[in-house]
Amino acid sequence: MSRPRALSGFPELSPEQRIVEQQVLDRLREVFELYGFASVETRAVEPLDTLAKQGEIDKEVYAVQRVAAEPGTPADLGLHFDLTVPFARYVLEHAHQLAFPFRRYQIQKVWRGERPQEGRYREFTQADVDIVNPGTLPAHFDVELPLVTLAALEKLHVDLGLPPVLMRVNNRLLAQGFYRGLGIEDTVAVLRQVDKLDKIGPDKVVELLTTDVGVTPAQAQACVRLASISSADASFVDEVRALGVTDPMLDEGLDLLADVVQTAGAYVPGRIVADLKIARGLDYYTGTVYETELVGYEKSGSVSSGGRYDSLASDGKTTYPGVGLSIGVTRLLVPLLGAGVLRATRSVPTAVVVAVTSEDRRPSATAVAARLRARGIPTEVAPEAAKFGRQIRYADRRGIPFVWFGAGEADEVKDIRSGDQVPADAATWEPPAEDLHPRVVPGEQG
Amino acid sequence: MSRPRALSGFPELSPEQRIVEQQVLDRLREVFELYGFASVETRAVEPLDTLAKQGEIDKEVYAVQRVAAEPGTPADLGLHFDLTVPFARYVLEHAHQLAFPFRRYQIQKVWRGERPQEGRYREFTQADVDIVNPGTLPAHFDVELPLVTLAALEKLHVDLGLPPVLMRVNNRLLAQGFYRGLGIEDTVAVLRQVDKLDKIGPDKVVELLTTDVGVTPAQAQACVRLASISSADASFVDEVRALGVTDPMLDEGLDLLADVVQTAGAYVPGRIVADLKIARGLDYYTGTVYETELVGYEKSGSVSSGGRYDSLASDGKTTYPGVGLSIGVTRLLVPLLGAGVLRATRSVPTAVVVAVTSEDRRPSATAVAARLRARGIPTEVAPEAAKFGRQIRYADRRGIPFVWFGAGEADEVKDIRSGDQVPADAATWEPPAEDLHPRVVPGEQG
């Protein structure tokens, strides 16, 4: 094999970057579990017809087929492109053994055969939280989902130094009730045009609404004004009311969105706004919709999106409405790692290297390492018998803070950063707590 | 969608089983890191020609191709079928940024398009540890690898109640040196026949050695006698010596194998034997070979295998010898879960459910939950305002031990197992340590 080349769109992390990713994933898991979400993993493949019927995404699916399959046999499996479709299938398949409402988190890789470009990956990790229930799902779960997601993202900010986030929330009932209150029937067509607001601007949207959807200029202006409203508290409600439109569905949407923004704002202050232009495309969402930008990295797109879906999972008899949010771990992390914003304090878990001065002393070094490991201190034995300087360089190159000398004879431990070397007992010595495991710290660009 | 059916060979765990799997994976990771192994994840796909040139395995590879690819275009990617081939590629691709000797662990899913049968999976999780180095790799790493692997498997036994293991070790240098010492030239041909010992018995092997390989009956008898030797200590060395064969390669193999068995036996007593019939097929191993059975589940096959490979990774200029072991997490765990040997004490992370007696009291319940979570106690708020009995049943169905009543008014917490209900303060109350997180315990069949 000559030196292999990277595959575009399939990012692979260095060991040091992987330490950062592991700490991110550990904290997401910790917060999800604090909120009582149970872990689920689904198989990587789904029947192609399950994946393909989601509409526009079908061109991005990777088909999977045994190399040994009869030539000409069509593939019947594909790699999942998100975790929502597999989760809907999992719920239907395993409904008889699940307890509802079912709260699950799922952290797995997904694959999309997209043309690779900045911020687009063909393989990436998603971390999803969803709650589903047969029949109906109470509206308070629309409040809880951003709470757990923002708590998780805030933990990444506070514990690991990732940038803070801003979650933008809207509710389709609000917009569709408003359009209905204006006397517009084809509310979905309006939503489709309003979704283009950021791309083409308000004038173009008004034009499209009047020419393509056929609403009056006054109606079109009102739709665009609605979409311009945003607030970090419940004051958006008064702004909407001031537009003079009334409709019961609008009321329902306003109440729910106000509850979401107020509750999440109370527990994770400053990280959520009601933003009435958010539409999240035209996929399966039916109520609340969420998207989230990383402050300072807005052009990377949403790092956490989701919403309420009332009919994604159905076996014909029972429908399972749900509400969920998905954190794009790769999309969040890889640009920060690439830009050197975050790094780990070392590239290995090891806190101590036990030096070996001659191969016949290796058993003593192994014994010291065993005693340190027994007390939870990650320890390596030096790979070769070598002189002082070479042992230090081995540790230094990896960022390992301590080297242990004289194993079993005249035990001493050196902090290679300060150069301090002190007598030590493998049965009692401990590194400072901050040196026990690698930490995530700001990088050169952080 | 009607109710979907399971895909044969793609096991999916229930939330409760997944808790067991997570605890298994956490402990493997903990031990690997205690020994200074760094985590690596490689992409799920490799170029098909990398996967296919491994010989006999090529029929089991899943090819991957975009659904939108031009019809008739041959697939050029496949899903990895193990973690060794991708790791060898990773080392070559990223060599310039790795520190050698490079110690990595890798826990990922792999895929094989095999005919599904008992104990065979199409998607399964492997946990690999390897050490590689350019040029040469000292023999003491052949000793360290079973040490870390046995420490990890022993932790699963002690902490989680999995059955103990027995690792069987051999060394190809020993066998090939012995054959050479007997005057046999084609040592690989002998190895190939001796590998059949367990399947066809000693008489048949002797017959094949004389008829197919062309060795004398005396030589054949000696080869079979060598393969019958095993010991949990270094006494196998004397047994081999007693066969009267001498060869420098034999000596090297004997010394190394004795060191492996003695060191691992000293640190993880009773879990390793030298077993001179172990051959591990004819794949890329060149020295020490390991395989591991789960005591009481021997017929499931090896749950942890590996060995020394001297030339798996090479870019034409530099060769990276390595030694590694792979734990088959799915093969280890799914039969135990299926047989009910292990279970989790509950199906969710939640320790406490905060009851809601009317929806207008939900904010108080949310506030209590937030205070408990802030101190690391996994907490859910009840999904609906309901009476006492219904709140208890919600918790009971999931195995959640505590229900919190009277949030913010007359706070009390009930242990639903004992029925004890006591006044509690959300700022200070803690569940007993053993109830904080789900634990893995023996199941009905355990």
TrEMBL record, chains A, B:
It catalyses: tRNA(His) + L-histidine + ATP = L-histidyl-tRNA(His) + AMP + diphosphate + H(+). It comes from Microlunatus spumicola. Residues 419-446 are annotated as: Disordered. This is Histidine--tRNA ligase. InterPro entries: aa-tRNA-synth_II (IPR006195), aa-tRNA-synth_II/BPL/LPL (IPR045864), Anticodon-bd (IPR004154), Anticodon-bd_dom_sf (IPR036621), His-tRNA-ligase (IPR015807), HisRS-like_core (IPR041715), HisRS/HisZ (IPR004516). Homodimer. Keywords: Aminoacyl-tRNA synthetase, ATP-binding, Cytoplasm, Ligase, Nucleotide-binding, Protein biosynthesis. The gene is hisS. GO terms for molecular function: ligase activity. CDD domains: HisRS-like_core. The keyword Cytoplasm applies. Belongs to the class-II aminoacyl-tRNA synthetase family. Residues 1-349 form the Aminoacyl-transfer RNA synthetases class-II family profile domain. It is an enzyme of class 6 (ligase). Its EC number is 6.1.1.21.
